[in-house]
Amino acid sequence: MANPGWSRIESPFHAGELAIQARLGIQERMDKQGRRMIREYLTEQHQQFFAQLSYVIVGTVDQYGSPWASILTGEPGFLSTPSDRILRVTAQALEGDPLAYNLKEGIDIGFLGIELHTRRRNRLNGTVSTIDSDGFTVQVSQSFGNCPKYIQNRMFEFVESQGNISQQIHEITKFEAWEQNLIANADTFFITTAYQDESAGIAKGVDVSHRGGKPGFIRIDDEQTLTIPDFSGNCHFNTIGNLELNPQMGLLFVDFSGGNILYLTGTAEVIWEGSEIKTYTGAEQLIRFHLTKGYRCKASLPLRWSNPDFSPLLERTGSW
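The structure assignment produced for this chain is given below.
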């Protein structure tokens, strides 16, 4: 049975996304693609995909307007779909995760369902409809799939609790040696951005997305600044479209072998032109992130991943 696409007259994209698409001369093409790919419900395939996950990336915005990217974990089935427009989450935020404070009924929320070992990912945006002692429920507003580009292949396993995590949570306002080491060696991280003005209609909300590249692709400029290459993607420009209207951004770095997590929030600007872009092979533009604050949480994640297998990436691209 065919899955109908976008059913509304208005665009599935908000003004910021449309502005970027127009700037690059692809707005008409992306309107057709968006109406075909983006849905207001979860297809049966996407429902099955979320149900088999053991972890999911979540985007929220705190009371001060700062976005945060988070990770929730659980045995397969902790994400379920009572209907194609409802996602049920049976999990609690990890200790130290800002999600514990941000989660409230009625808030906008974004999800990135991703399997690193299969390189599959699907996005979901919506609003939190109910919260209870076991978890929370989300009303779906947008759902769509993403290609496997830039996803590093790695296997995972659950591990036992590492003891008193609360003693290993530290607030930061600059990148010290621990943070710099994690960021400098990262081949994967996650971004949360948001545009929540009511004028955007159903296209408003919080978006969380994946970024991947060769280890060292993120440049640490100073103790509070990162420069991130932005490679070609699906041309929706969800992240950059949000930044066009709201410069707030959150980042999540995961230490896949040690279970450490780094949560960051701050502001960002997009660099569209200049010789600096050419110093990053394959970059179409750059994102410069300025840290406001963050949290480093040691051994808080009950999952561990293997070292990445880069062969699927090499097979698809022929090179880095």
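Interim note for the steering committee: The chain has one domain: 15-317. Residues 33 and 205 are 20 Å apart (CA to CA).
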